[in-house]
Amino acid sequence: MTAEPARAAEPPEARPEPVAPRSTPGREIAAIAVDLVVPVAAYYLLRGVGCAPGPALLLASVPTAVFGLHQIVRHRRVDALAAFVLAVLAGSVLISAITGSPRFLLAKGAFFTAAIGLVFLGSFLARRPLAFVLARDMLGRTPWGARFDVGSWDVHWAGDAVFRRAWRFATGLWAAGMLADAAVRLAMALTLPVDAVPALGSALSVVTFVGLQVIQQVYFARVGLWASLAGPRPVGPAD
Question: What angle do CA 185, 47, 89 make, to 5 degrees?
């Protein structure tokens, strides 16, 4: 018997690389509605049917808590942001129950934004500031990621002082803005009429976000950040 010639090993089937989920307008609108619109609308609806401020604030917080739990269950991991929101909400409820005042529930937004500001501030000690990390992650999940070549940002960071200065400025800007926002929220929660605070808090969120974005984008345009990212891709050091 003659031995059959050995067959050449077939190359392994290429597996597609996992693709990060892309953001969609629907998801973004849903997140904004849950965080800003739904709780405020629920609060004033409950107040309109005779519910006391404390229970109304507590019930109006249910959509936020459900959304946070849904994020944890859906992704099968404890998301740090969702866990923090739930912890702040639980702490505010506990303190309000002990003191009998709804103002700690009103102040939960101040604790949340203060923590965000401190995280931005603390990120100056990390390898990359938080504004850089968040922008790269968010753009990478959208079609804008290809236009601004987020894969080359580490190369820009290593060789472009203007690029580094721009993201450090943005990180400092958001740190200062979030801390200022927290101070205003706390003052509103402790001094203004209870029924006025939920609506004013949502308005403050819009003003803070839009104001910081405008300042950031004006600065980015002045230093030519987006124009440089949309231009030719930088060449990294040879391996």
Answer: 45
Instruction: Tally Cβ neighbours within 10 Å of residue 165.
Output: 13
* Residue 14: inside a domain: no
All residues at 6 or more sequence positions from 156 whose CB lies less than 8 Å from its CB, including other chains: 163, 228, 229, 234
User: What does the alpha-carbon distance between residue 162 and residue 224 come to, in Å, rounded to a whole number?
Assistant: 9
101 and 148 together in one domain: no
Please write down the long-range contacts of 91-94, taking CB distance under 8 Å and 24 or more positions apart: 93/58, 93/61
pTM of the model: 0.75
Q: Per residue in 161-200, pLDDT tens?
A: 999 999 999 999 999 999 999 999 999 999 999 999 999 9
97 and 123 part of one domain: no
**How many residues belong to the chain?**
239
Measure the CA–CA gap between 232 and 188, rounded to whole angstroms: 49
φ, ψ of residue 219 to 5 degrees: the values are -65, -45
Shared domain check, 99 and 120? no
List alpha helices for the chain, DSSP H: 25-32, 38-48, 53-60, 62-75, 80-99, 103-106, 108-122, 130-140, 144-147, 153-159, 161-191, 197-223, 225-230
User: Of 205, 152, 173, which Cα lies nearest the Cα of 40?
Assistant: 205
Q: Which residue, 174, 67, 170, 194, is CA-closest to 113? A: 174
More confident call, 71 vs 113: 113
